[in-house]
């Protein structure tokens, strides 16, 4: 198993060895109950149930075609489960649209970049603020005569803070389509953060990146979780990163959940090693370790 090593990042929210997890007795912010998803005769998900705790960095892993993105699409609202229910903050959101869920506090990035290539970085990130605007077709005329300028400045200040956080100041006025792949991934993350979500879904945020870019992205995700206080759900194939930064991990295989728990528990599970890692020798030493800085959210 190989992956980008993630060095300890002693930011303001970083745990030190022996310190408790970021959240104790955490409430469940999202729950899936018996989720099934079928496309004709294809069973993408079969009876998947799990919960995500507030303040947690939760990773979903599995081989290609295991149903990871399908599960994230059920969380974000792009797919509606064929059977089963999904709950956000204790509320049944199974039938809600993606826009409605975004307004409740669910944001996401996509496996395939979904930026507006002809727009600047700044404008792409500002799009993420659209559902926070106060005007509508009834109040619009009055709004533009009174508070429009003030609100726009407030949104731009928050966007500039996100740009500083992700260290993309040097490309803030560049056209998104002209940027390198790694920078475009960062801009898409910035747009998702601009939604101010309580739960952010990251679909393969490090895919296609080199080692240095992966290390940077891993640190941003940890800081996003610890400093911004966002609950993070991440799909990622780089097992080194997953095992280093996750509080808990869920493993899918052919649309079914086969394991869930702390990274070291999941890594030691024979079913995971056979299904995901392709290992038959249970005596082989694990090749990744979970640093003490990342603890389970109780």
From TrEMBL:
Ranges of biased composition (kind: Polar residues): 13-24
EC code(s) of this entry: 3.6.3.-
Record region (Disordered): 1-24, 277-298
Residue ranges the record marks as coiled coil: none
Annotated GO MF terms: ATP binding; ATP hydrolysis activity
Highest rank taxon of the organism: Bacteria
Listed GO CC annotations: plasma membrane
Cited InterPro entries: AAA+_ATPase, ABC_AA/LPS_Transport, ABC_transporter-like_ATP-bd, BCA_ABC_TP_C, P-loop_NTPase
The ABC transporter domain, residue ranges: 24-279
Keyword annotations of the record: ATP-binding, Hydrolase, Nucleotide-binding, Plasmid, Transport
Pfam families xref list: ABC_tran, BCA_ABC_TP_C
Protein name (Swiss-Prot/TrEMBL): Branched-chain amino acid ABC transporter, ATP-binding component
Source organism of the structure: Azospirillum lipoferum (strain 4B)
Gene name as annotated: braF
